């Protein structure tokens, strides 16, 4: 009987343990706002929270709500909310809220601007407190998230003396979301905007979306696809837009819409959309006024025009500046802006597609209205695993340039490949354009330091969807996070951001943080190695951009094909962009152009972007190009295997649900990295007729097999 009872008790314990594990399993919904409980509450932890204000705005209410939510989780009990300052209180205040604190407590506008904040351990009326102060209520909210980030990361919160302000003014997510909820290049479910149920039903998820964005300083969101649908500008949809804006407003997030240039024709039957036509100008002014009636703090328009078949001013013989300025005039009375994308390529095939944006936009420098920003992709092609920085950065001193980054991994393995993009963006932002001498980095152009732009900004193409983990995978959350942190400070360290994210997302244990950060920091280079090494680019399957397809050369126009970008023949490989080829290198400042145009000084990582070289070309390490190319494929696969091993070593340190998903995704990544290597090598060998270097295994299938693979239903396809 005793043994029976023992067995029953043991079984009950196992069941209870199983149920407990299920209860605490994590699906990633909380993102980096998990607020994991501290093992030991520090003596410096606050005991109460006070809003020292005469009036509490919805933004300050949101700040207080976040503190109570976080403290209940991190400290085990929520802070007491009071109206009198006591010892060890957390004190929130701003100039805007009618602060009731001693003189000198609030920071001045020169210190923090309109969105910055101060975190300070200080004395108020002789009592030790932690002050979170700003000029504006949104500055206080940003300060609260900074304070909670430090606390939840296990950092010291005593003796704080922090002043922080954003280096860019506009920090936007660009949703490539359609009104039918399909997300172009989206790999995490449907669009979160449930247009059919809005405005009657406003999903609570929108509030969590706002919290997450505010926590990393994002202050704007463009709701709709740049391949735009004019329907969103109709009253039926503007009611829905207004409902979303109402949720986002307390978190400092403005909504923006993509404007279809032909909307006057499509919605109201005008005969033209010519931006210089008075009737068209009147239509846009009236439509803009109508939008502001629905959304008084509407941010403005994002426009893709005369690119990939989208309508635009060039349809009427007008320039990009004339098109942008018409819209800018309409939003100017309301304080709005126009973000005009520089991603263009014409209906006629150019000699070299990467030259076109520079060719079209540089002559227009100084012609854009003061509330227009030209939004420029990080590289001159299209969000590839590696590109040189875009030559427009530094080339338009009279026109604010807003950098566009792609958070969703259209070309880097979708949501299943671990590819931390912080390193990619840091590489671009730290690149020296040399347009005004050494030190003229892309970051210094984007944040206005170089040319004192009236507006500054960064945009990120969103990876957010309806998946419970928001981004399709846990590690893709890090790219959303890194975008926000770099938009706040383009000079920030990608590694510091990764560590910060790991501490909040997985664990504060130093050994766990080190292991995961190491995985993240080498992950993007691994993708470059097994997909597009040595400056190769755009080798992905056409249309869906899934998997390798370097052999494709028979589409409607040459610059849609991978062959256009590698030009591999028996004699060599690479795109000649020197003066003997397209001379695209000449669009860069002299010292940069000279470095990249010379085979003696161009880095290996950009060799085949700028040069067509023989297969037996001698690399800097003494190997031939062919040997180096094959070695890079192998290195990429080896790095993924290392990441698998590192992640496996963390079993027991990470909850089972997230651990298992990442394990499965790394398995997919390893298989697909091998596929990239094998298919690519099979194709290159069919061109160069060279044997593999010693010790390298041949592809397990012939080229026809790899060519036969078809993926018509790959997710996130473009239109």
Q: Outline the biggest β-sheet.
A: 8 strands, parallel, barrel
Please identify the structural class as seen in this structure: alpha/beta
The CATH topology annotation of the largest domain reads as TIM Barrel
> What gyration radius follows from the Cα positions, in whole Å?
27 Å
CATH superfamily of the largest domain: Glycosidases
Q: Which stretches are low in confidence, meaning pLDDT under 50 for 5 or more residues running?
A: 1-23
Give a count of the beta strands, DSSP E runs of length 2 or more.
14
The oligomeric state of the chains shown is single chain
Organism: Hyphomonas pacifica
GO molecular function, one term: xylan alpha-1,2-glucuronosidase activity
InterPro entries: A-glucoronidase_C_sf, GH, Glyco_hydro_67_aGlcAse, Glyco_hydro_67_aGlcAse_N, Glyco_hydro_67_C, Glyco_hydro_67_cat, Hex-like_dom2
Catalytic activity: Hydrolysis of (1->2)-alpha-D-(4-O-methyl)glucuronosyl links in the main chain of hardwood xylans
Report on the structure:
An 8-stranded parallel beta barrel has the order 7-8-9-10-11-12-13-14. A 6-stranded mixed beta sheet has the order 2-1-3-5-4-6. With 719 residues, the chain is an alpha/beta fold. Helix 2 runs parallel beside helix 4, helix 15 (510-531) runs antiparallel to helix 19 (625-648) and helix 19 packs antiparallel against helix 20 (656-688). The protein contains 21 helices and 14 strands. It has helices at 2-24, 58-74, 109-112, 137-152, 205-215, 235-248, 263-268, 278-294, 320-331, 356-361, 422-429, 442-446, 474-488, 494-505, 510-531, 562-566, 590-597, 607-610, 625-648, 656-688, 703-708; strands at 48-51, 80-82, 89-94, 117-124, 127-134, 161-164, 170-174, 220-222, 254-258, 300-303, 337-341, 372-377, 401-406, 457-461. Helix content is 37%, strand content 10%. The protein folds into 3 domains: 48-164, Chitobiase/beta-hexosaminidase domain 2-like (Chitobiase, domain 2); 170-506, TIM Barrel; 529-575 and 612-708, Alpha-d-glucuronidase, C-terminal Domain. Strand 8 (220-222), helix 6 (235-248) and strand 9 form a beta-alpha-beta unit.
